[in-house]
Amino acid sequence: xxxxxxxxxxxxxxxxxxxxxxxxxxxxxxxxxxxxxxxxxxxxxxxxxxxxxxxxxxxxxxxxxxxxxxxxxxxxxxxxxxxxxxxxxxxxxxxxxxxxxxxxxxxxxxxxxxxxxxxxxxxxxxxxxxxxxxxxxxxxxxxxxxxxxxxxxxxxxxxxxxxxxxxxxxxxxxxxxxxxxxxxxxxxxxxxxxxxxxxxxxxxxxxxxxxxxxxxxxxxxxxxxxxxxxxxxxxxxxxxxxxxxxxxxxxxxxxxxxxxxxxxxxxxxxxxxxxxxxxxxxxxxxxxxxxxxxxxxxxxxxxxxxxxxxxxxxxxxxxxxxxxxxxxxxxxxxxxxxxxxxxxxxxxxxxxxxxxxxxxxxxxxxxxxxxxxxxxxxxxxxxxxxxxxxxx
Length: 392
Hints:
The protein is an alpha/beta fold. The chain has three domains: 7-179 and 272-315, Rossmann fold (3-Layer(aba) Sandwich); 184-258, Arc Repressor Mutant, subunit A (Orthogonal Bundle), CATH 1.10.10; 324-389, Thrombin, subunit H. Helix content is 37%, strand content 18%. The protein has 14 helices and 15 strands. Strand 9 (240-243) and strand 10 form a beta hairpin.
C-alpha cells in the first residue's frame, strides 16, 4: 500500500476545534503558519507500558535502535531529571532542559543539541517546536500530553529535513492522573481570582502598574503559575492592563464576586474544553485506527483514505500485534515472559485465568467459546480472541 497523497486542509478558520500553532525556524513564537498537516516522512506510534520500569526500558530501546538526535518530552521537571539520570547511567549522551535550570546551562545544553553532540534532550514542552534544527530524527513523549493539539505541535519539530522521523508516545494509563493534576492547577477557582484582585488593590495597582513578582509574593496562598493564569483571565475581561516587563495595572477597584461571574463562566467552559481535549488524547493512544487519520480528523482535514501505510497501526494491525513475535528476546527486554518460557509452562486456559496481549495488556478470561476466549481488559472492555494468539 502506498502512502496517501491527497489531504484537504480544514476549511474553517481555526485549524482544529481549538487551535494549533506550528513553529518553523525564523518564525516568531505564536505565529500560525500553513505548513501542511500531513507529512509522509513522519511515523507515529504508541507503545503501551504498564509501569515506570517498563517505560524506561522501552525508552532505552528506542534510543538504542533509532539513529540520529531527538527530543524526549516529560510532563514534569521531576520526570525530566529522572529520565536524564537513567539514560546517562546507561551511557547515553543526554542533557536536560527546563525552567528551573540556570540560563547558562539551558543555553549550553541547547547549543550542544543543535550541534548534534547529544543523542537526546530530555525536556518539558518549552523546548523543541521553535528550535532551529531540521534533522531531528525522533521525538518521544515519556508522558502523555494533555491534548492532540500539544502532541502534534511538539512532534512538529521532527523530520523537517524531509528524512524519515519517528514520533513515539509511551502510553501508561496512569499518565492520565498527571494530566488531570496539571489541569487542576491550570484553572483557578473564584476565591483565588478574588484573592488576586484584592492583592492588586492593596498594592495600589489601580494607581501605578506593579510587577508580576511583587503580586506573586502578595498572594502566597495562590500558586505562582495560577496567579499568571488569573491575570490573563482578568486581562481578557478588561479588568487588568498588562504593560511592558510583566507589569499589571488594575482598571477597576472594589471588585466583588458578582463582577467575576462572567469570568467564572469562561473558566468553566475552558475546564470542560480541556477535559474534552484530554479524552481525545486518550482515545488516540488507545485506538487501533490509523494514527495519521486520527490526527488529521481531529484538526478537521478532509481525508480520502483509510490508512497512511506507515504508522504503527497501519504497519501492524491489531491481528498481527496479537501474534507472538519472531524474536523472543523482544519480550524479555520489556519485562514480559518470552515465548520459550511460555512453551515450557504451557497449560490449558480456564475461566478466571489472566492472559496478556501486547496491544491490550493483561485481562481476565470471562468465558470460553470453542477456540475463542472472552476476555475483559480493564482499559479496553470485552474482547473475543482466538487462543492461539495469547500469552498466558
